[in-house]
Amino acid sequence: MLTKMRKYYHFAFTILMIMGLLASCSQDEKKYRIGVSQCSDDIWRDKQNSELQIGAYFHDNVELRFAAAYDSDERQIQQIDSLVGTGIDLLIVAPNQVSTISPAIDRAYDKGIPVIVFERKTNTKKYTAYMGADNYEMGHLMGEYVATRLNERGRIIEVMGLKGSSPAIERHNGFREAIAQHPGIQVVATLQGDWTEPTAYNMVKQWLDKNKDAGKIDLVFGMNDRTAMGARKAFEEAGGILPLFCGIDGLPGENGGIRLVQDSLLDASYIYPTHGDQLLQLAVDILEGKPYEKETKLMSALVTQDNARVLLMESEEIMRQSSNLEQLHEKASQYLDQLGNQRTLIFVALAAILLLLALLAGIYMYYLQRARIQDERTKMEREQLDFYTQVSHELRTPLSLIQGPLDQLLRTNDFRGASDEARELFSIVRRNTHHLTGIINKMLDAQMGTPIQEMTSAQVDAITVSQPIAAPAEVPDQDEDAPTVLIVDDNADIRTYLRSILQGQYRLLEAEDGQRGLELAREQVPDLIVSDVMMPVMNGLEFCQQVKKDGISSHIPVILLTARALEKHQIEGYESGADAYITKPFSPELLLARIDNLLQSRHQLKDLWGMKPATETTAAPSEATATAPTPTEDAFISSFKKIVEERLSNSNLSVEDLAANMGLSRVQLYRKVKALTGSTPIDLLRKARLAQAQKLLQESTLSVSEVAYQVGFASPSYFTKCYKDEFGIVPGEARKPN
Ligand code: FRU
User: Fold this and answer.
1) Which residues are within 8 A (CB) of 450 and not within 5 positions of it... i.e. 6 or more apart?
2) If you measure from the C-alpha of residue 55 to the centroid of ligand 1, how many angstroms do you get, rounded to a whole number?
3) Which of these, 4, 252, 473, 595, could form a disulfide with 315 (CB 3.0-4.6 Å)?
4) CA triplet 231, 185, 145: central angle to 5 degrees?
5) Same CATH topology for 26-131+279-296 and 623-734?
């Protein structure tokens, strides 16, 4: 049972686990993890990162992992390796310098991770795609602008980006090639910067300190806006006429290049495109196996005093919308979170309901199992009870046969002549027989809890063996007029004993089992039946039922005389239709009293034709104590009345004719009619004739003789005699006065 329950709960737990898994699975489909390795951390990188993030919002399944190397090769190499280690699906990298980062990029690529190189170049061929603006062209256009701005004449300083980084190299090459076309423009100094404002400031400051007499400088080209502003700071500190400052990046926002140009802090800048969203789309296309461009060139534009205002407005509008988009996304993700929580809640609720159902089913199964065990126990107890009942029967029967006859002997006159010693001895036997009965009763009660197996088979044999002896159907030398009692018992001694009690008062019939008893009950229609319960062939309960079911015998009172002393056995007995239940060992007086009482209380329908009977036949009970007739008996009497009334004009009508019409033998009809009415069929036929005659005399003009013949009397004088006997007057006196 316990293992079953355990299995059951294991099953319920598994269901819960599956539900949990379903809940979590449904929440995350396949995610793309994209690593972004930035060489620096500044406002340009910030802008690009947030564009990448906005791009990712359009793809539910993209997760971005950012890293910034703060212009350090070593740090960037380390960061790339660790991003790869976290299991990214694609790497976006802006390498700090052309050659230094390549080995880390190669390692990622060799692991099968697609690599997008962005904005800065590398000397490795192991990359999946490249996206960026043309830095050479940018430098070249800036050189052209400077020449034009200075009207082909002027002295300039160039402050470079980080040494070894591709934009620094390309912008320098483009710038210098353009300047070379303009001989009036002289590059006074090329200073090495590293893209940061403080370095540019320091480099320019040092140069100015060293070259105090270098003469007027007309323009400083910083390779990005921060560099140009660093140079400006140094010049401002040095005092004197400030040159023009040009940079690159042209970012929107507070400290961005566009505003610096508009505020005339810078003379010009060049928009260096970030395009994070476009970069993210390229990454997703690669991951999803869609077609993509290996090399993407981003377009760019110069920012000057002429267009700075418009560009600023536009870019600020874009920034505003980006911020709206961010807020929208924030809201959307809040809703999504709520939705997710609700979904989890639903799954948990479902799981709880399932668990509850499983629990209920478990409890139901448990009770089912318990009921089964209880049934088996009840069955065993019943078998045990049957066994002990059998044992009880076997013990009580011989006890009855000792105790009863002994009691009887002690009561008889003959015995009074016995010696005192003999009487004393018999008293001892009697006392001890009663004592033994008590002990057996107690022992059987106590034994109810003892398993049958504990008794040896020899013990069982010893107490269950009994040989039935065939009974003679009718006991000879009996008083024919006495009421008939049928004794049904398989034990010959019991029959003998019962006979000794009943004979003299009753005419006796005997049967050794229910089957034979039933035959006798139908043939002889006795006035009462005393039957054992436990018998071969047909037991007493079945026998009693059959007796009560059969139209011929249904009226006969049945006393069950049995060793089955338990209350439930008595109930069974009464349910089978028994009129009385007496347990063994029994008192003969009780049995006699019960028989007498049952015979007395038979309900007899005496006044079948609405006439007072002339004489009482047997001692009849008062109406109050009589048992009401059953529907079977009512039906029998009605059919008898009908048959009699239809045929009474026939003066030759005999009891045999009536019996034959009712499908019975003469004896059967006689005894059944006698038992139910107290009169014989012949008496009843005569009464029916007289009742009809009385009616005809009162209602017709027929003469007395005609009436006599009509109601089946062969002789009018005999009719007159019978009429006078019945009604106390002669027929002529019955006529109504005209
Ligand atoms: C940002 C930045 C920009 C510059 C670019 C060159 O990190 O320094 O200012 O234009 O990188 O790669």
Assistant:
1) 384
2) 21
3) 252
4) 70
5) no
> Who lines ligand 1 at CB under 6 A?
40, 42, 44-45, 119-120, 161, 165, 167, 195, 224, 248-249, 272
Nearest protein CA to atom 4 of ligand 1, as residue: 224
From the CA of 195, how far away is ligand 1's center (Å)? 6
CATH number of 484-600: 3.40.50.2300
Cα gap 565→542, rounded to integer Å: 18
Q: List the chain domain ranges.
A: 2-25+312-464, 26-131+279-296, 484-600, 623-734
Q: Average pLDDT of 629-652?
A: 81
Contact 149, 268 (CB under 8 A): yes
Under a CB-based contact definition with an 8 Å cutoff, are residues 538 and 513 in contact? yes
Q: Which two tokens stand for residue 708?
A: 């006599």
d(CA 483, CA 177): 152
Under 8 Å between Cβ of 261 and 267: yes
Both tokens of 368, joined, read: 């089912």
Mutation to probe ligand 1, out of 159, 272, 274, 300 (largest number of atoms < 8 A from CB): 272
CATH architecture of the domain 623-734 equals Orthogonal Bundle (1.10)
Are the C-beta atoms of 266 and 233 separated by less than 8 Å? no
- Ligand 1 atom having least distance to the Cα of 40: 7
CA 274 to chain centre: 62
- Secondary structure in 3-state letters for 601-624: CCCCCCCCCCCCCCCCCCCCCCCC
- What 3-state DSSP class applies to 521? helix
- Compute, in angstroms, the gap from residue 40 CA to the centroid of ligand 1: 8
* Residue 305 Cα to ligand 1 middle (Å): 22
Phi then psi for 295, rounded to 5 degrees? -120, 120
| Cα-to-centroid distance, 314 and ligand 1 (Å) | 22
pLDDT in tens, 473-527: 766 666 777 889 999 998 888 888 888 888 888 999 999 999 999 999 998 899 9
- Closest ligand 1 atom number to CA of residue 165: 12
Dihedral sign of CA atoms 307, 309, 311, 312 in order = positive
Name the β-bridge partners of 187. 156
Ligand 1 atom index nearest CA of 41: 7
Distance 37 CA to ligand 1 centre (A): 14
Query: If you measure from the C-alpha of residue 273 to the centroid of ligand 1, how many angstroms do you get, rounded to a whole number?
Result: 10
End-to-end C-alpha distance for the chain, whole angstroms: 96
Most confident of 47-51, 382-386, 696-700: 47-51
> To which CATH superfamily is domain 26-131+279-296 assigned?
Response regulator (3.40.50.2300)
Which atom of ligand 1 is nearest the CA belonging to 38? 7
Nearest Cα residue to 581 out of 594, 592, 599: 594
- Total-model pTM: 0.50
Q: Which residue owns the Cα nearest ligand 1 atom 9?
A: 224
Distance CA 460, CA 565 (A): 20
pLDDT value of position 452: 39
